[in-house]
# Entry
Amino acid sequence: MDITLALGGGGSRGAAHIGVLCALARNGFRIRAVAGTSIGSVVGAFYAFGYTPDEIESLFASVDFSRLLYGWPLSEGPGLLGIRGITDFLRTHLGNRNFDDLQIPFAVVAVDLNSRREIILREGRVVDAILGSIAIPGIFPPKEYEPYRLVDGGTLNPVPVNVARALLPNLPVVAVNLNPPLDQPSTPLNLQFPGPKTFVEQISRLNLTQAFQIFGEAVDIGQRELTELRLEIDKPAVIISPLVSDIGLLDAIDVNKIASRGEIATLEALPALKHAVSWRARLMRSLLRR
# Structure
């Protein structure tokens, strides 16, 4: 049962992607290609490099992500937080390998500030592409990736269904959406800073910090609206939507617990998944392409 996978953005919610991979594997689905935006590009890269879903979960669960995400920016570029921790993590486990070294087709989605358009990355060093795709504007510094200046792919393409479909057009696209519908409450951004507790509390009370939190909530509304519009236009064969609206983009999480939410959502989607790979669905896709 072959499929392609489109993994959406969502920060800490992305641990649910791991549970989706686990449930798909245990139910006989073979992922032949992956496209990822933001945290989806991180999880997708590990899978495309050959890590099993269980290995990805074990590795991510062993890491204190608060140490990776909450570094001071220093000289890394314009952003409230630095990326040295996440950069070291990715390079330790993915090395300097290029897209050509991957076991299955893989694409990373980012946005170029210079040209103001979506960029699909399939060449060069994978880690550099990922660092562009996860660069949340204002939070993490843009990634200089000549000739681009890259920021988070979710800015224009929160769940890259069209990109996944282009990788292997004959297969159904399964989209994993981590953005809740507009009519559901969510926790978009809980910005924290490293340092002693009293110092952190003082920063959190600053008008600038509170203003940024409000800005984050407004951006979250736009992201959810954009996600619904893109999914309606791009029409994946199946949409898996783990229940992760209570998790902020940069929250500290229990990876195993959030991964289990992805597994639950995938099991609930099994009837739709099995239909998507049926001969009737394959015939319909073939007729539509013609």
Remarks:
- The chain has a mean pLDDT of 86.
- The first strand starts at residue 2 and ends at 7.
